[in-house]
Amino acid sequence: MKAEIITIGDELLIGQTVDTNSAWIGAELSQAGFDICRKISIHDRREDILDAVSEAVSRYDIVIITGGLGPTSDDITKQTLCDIFNGRMVLNPTVLSMIDEMMKRRGIAMNENNRKQAEVPDSCRVLYNKMGTAPGMWFEKEGTIFISLPGVPYEMKYIMNEHVLPELKKRFQSQVIIHRNIMTYGTSESKLAEILSGFEKSLPPEIKLAYLPSYGIIKLRLTGTGRNREIVENIVDEQVKKLYSIIPQLIYSEIDEPIESFIGNLLKERGLTICTAESCTGGKIAQMLTSIPGSSQYYKGSVIAYDNSIKTSLLNVPEEMISNYGAVSEQVVAKMATEVRKKFRTDYSVATSGIAGPDGGSESKPVGTVCIAVSSDNGVGVITEKYVFGNERILNINRFSIASLNLVRRQILQLQK
Question: In percent, how much of the chain has pLDDT > 70?
Fold first, then answer.
């Protein structure tokens, strides 16, 4: 069963509005067993709507269209669809009554624009919208279902959940589609693909593997398809077990979650605490940890030791250590991590010092260099690592922070690199 999603609006094309609708619709349709073949955004222009609909006829089983159903003159989707599906505009009394009731509830007088929203093509099935004034519309042509929905996200979701998804599930003999996300960190996408080349070649035909990288974290998405849910789930489970046998040190979660969420749960489950001493990351690690609800249970505080004078005065880093090894050194971050853990009396601490860029690098320590240390009393003491990333400052700060949290993860779980 093939599906296409069309979003309409100039504001989407010029970046004034971020298209969240197609992501949500895609996830819901995929869960219902549809293969999402295409997603496009088009102008609020009659000819573009005509082209998009004509391309989709008989090509897809279902096409979901969002946007262009408002009360103003630039919202032309409804009239265009009326023409495409050989209808004429008629006043729908139920829609008119719903709009009138909503306006009264809000203390707003209904005007002619609101009244026009109660006009719908007589060639469609009306999808009533209790969350707004624009109804949805269901058309069919040459074996393809076209569903037009408001662009306002909460209105679109209401109509999808209340009308569209239940009807689609009844009408179509759904195949089962199961997605499993495996979150990894610790290698590049190309290297991971090389490691998993044999695994990919041996995948059964029901399973597809996708690599989705972001800031060094690579999400492996296994997608299983079939008719029997239990059989598909068992096949996916088997492939996940194989991944654990191949890359156990790289996998940190089977939930699509950021690494700070995983670490937060790990600390809570074990009754552990953590603090941070940050130079080049400037509080980014603290911000990531505290963005998770309930982080006060395990996160104690931070020293932002951006200037060397703060490293020496608050974290007792000897000036001669900085002179001998440089502020960006494993020796300095080890001392920072040790001292901040003493100061906040936590089970773990993480410290960073690096060169985020775009300036400040040298031949021995180029832009993108970061030194990280994690201190604990788990028998290992302090461990340090040095990385060299790229030249882009904001990207580096994110990469430095994620690498630091991954080192914390490995320390808590006592995983080797």
Answer: 99
